[in-house]
Specification:
It is built from six helices and seven strands, in the order E-H-H-E-E-H-H-E-H-E-H-E-E. It is of the alpha+beta class. The protein has a single domain, classed as 3-Layer(aba) Sandwich (Aminopeptidase), CATH 3.40.630.30. A hairpin with a 5-residue loop joins strand 2 and strand 3. The chain is globular and about 45 Å long. The model has no long low-confidence stretch (mean pLDDT 92).
Length: 190
């Protein structure tokens, strides 16, 4: 028997909310609160960053946007995902590392980004967001899903607890000066 109180956060598909457009500001607030990049040289650079890691999903994949909502209707976190293999999908051509892992993305084509405000972490909310997306991807017939993150990042453990295994480790960009070690974590669905 669990001694934890029930989780007051509800998980809802963005398109099914009564006010999807009104929630964008809350989604963006969580995005920038949790982003690894906090300083931008100008507004255009900030907007390009937002479009790359969030905006393209909101505009192209609204059926795969899941929200964690507080009892008051505020955004506690979100998951944006896509069922298309990013190595074969032109709208992801600007993310060069997908070509270096294309030999694996076809096995795990669905992919996601998840962000939670700090106060809503470690309470099961992130796992509930992932399971909502997993159910959708499985129903659509996707054989698997993946995420790419920095090796040694805190979220690697979170994904491991949610059934993801490391299937690749690589440096990006592939040569200095700003080379960074990344991992591809994947979960089979079929």
């Amino acid at each position: 028997m669990s001694t934890l109180p029930p989780n007051p956060i509800t998980i809802e598909r963005w398109r099914d909310t009564s006010r999807p457009q009104a929630l964008i500001a809350g989604i963006e607030a969580v995005f920038f609160e949790t982003a690894g990049t906090q300083a931008f040289q100008d507004a255009a650079t900030r907007e390009a960053f937002r479009d790359r890691w969030l905006g393209r999903y909101l505009s192209s994949d609204p059926d795969h946007v899941w929200l964690a909502l507080t009892a008051e209707g505020a955004i506690a976190g979100y998951l944006v995902g896509c069922l298309d293999d990013p190595a074969l999908t032109p709208r992801f051509a600007d993310i060069g590392y997908f070509q270096s892992i294309a030999h694996l993305t076809w096995l795990y084509p669905a992919h996601l980004h998840i962000n939670l405000s700090a106060r809503y972490r470690s309470d099961g909310t992130g796992s509930r967001l992932i399971e909502a997306f997993v159910a959708t991807a499985a129903r659509a017939g996707s054989p698997g899903l993946h995420v790419v993150t920095g090796a040694g990042m805190r979220n690697v453990g979170f994904y491991g607890r949610n059934g993801f295994l490391e299937v690749a480790r690589f440096s990006w960009p592939p040569s200095p000066p700003r080379e960074r070690e990344l991992v591809m974590l994947a979960r089979r669905l079929a």
